[in-house]
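Lab notebook, bench 4. Still working through the backlog of constructs that have no structural model yet. Next entry is a single chain of 361 residues. Request: give me the structure tokens for it.
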Amino acid sequence: MGDMFIRHIELLGYEKRFFPSQHYVYMFLVKWNDLSEKLVYRRFTEIYEFHKALKEMFPIESGDINPENRIIPHLPAPKWFDGQRSTQNRQGTLAEYCYALVNLPHKISRCGHVVRFFSVRPDDTSPVTDSQIKKPEVFLLPKDSKKNPTDITGPIVLQTYRVISDYEKSSRSEMALKTGEMVDVVEKSESGWWFCQLKNKRGWVPAAYLEPIDGPDESEEQEPNYAGELYTVQKSYTAIEEDELTLKEGDTIEVIHKLLDGWWVIRKDEATGFYPSMYLQKSGENSPVKSELRNRSAPPRRQWLQTSLAHLDNTELPWREVIEKNEQEENRSKAQPAVPPRPSKDLIMNRCTESTRRKIL
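Model written out:
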């Protein structure tokens, strides 16, 4: 397997944090050559120190010997006091810097210094925090304003989802879940793995284990594209369920419906079925072999999870209806009102009105 290197660095925005004291960190989505995507957080002072060290490593390319030979991009020094305005206004320069950095000659853009700086650190997935202090405020760059990063939104309240079943993590980059927990979704990947945060924890979780706090919302799903979109299979998969397809690496298929749980409806010749989206790549996009992908399993399907939760009474009802039905029956058994005895004929004749007495005569 070849050495790891960065394909792209996207500036997502920044966070305003309050522990151990108020400060700001930039959020980067780092896309690697194995097609993995990692979320990392860096203070600007760290970025500037990284930049200075990079210039020292490559004095010719930094223009120290001859300014005309400079190809390493410029980066302004930190201000004496970096507040929110300077953090926000610097985003345009920082986004351009990252773009220029990954497009430098390979001896620079793929050197160990660059790779190490943008690799995931423990505090990227589990930031140090204090439960007594309010959680960070997130300021994201809108998708349609990347050309003008000063058009910042914020603070943005991340979407909150409810965990519908326990989940045990299988790698350090994932996050364990407990039923009923509320998590904030930072990133929704088409692979069906979402990057979430819960208090001081961060990690990837299967989208199938989450639902909006107001209940399932089908409007979140994309509309089907029956014309189909060409994709190439990057990893073979053998169908487990009847509605899935078995495909081999290199097969060309058509994607007709992209679902949030990472299982897309695809078409191969005359056959249609589900296939893990993380094993697919859009046709025409040339990328190195997914080394990490080959060792990672597809996320669970939402349908599988719902079926396992709906085992009560062996019913075919959706799992949520099963739970609600059982709760209603349990509540009725706990608080069943007593039925009063029917009054005797003599009691009715002595105490009721004339119209009531006529009904029993």
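Notes after review: The first helix runs from residue 44 to 57. The longest strand covers residues 6-17. Flag for follow-up if needed.
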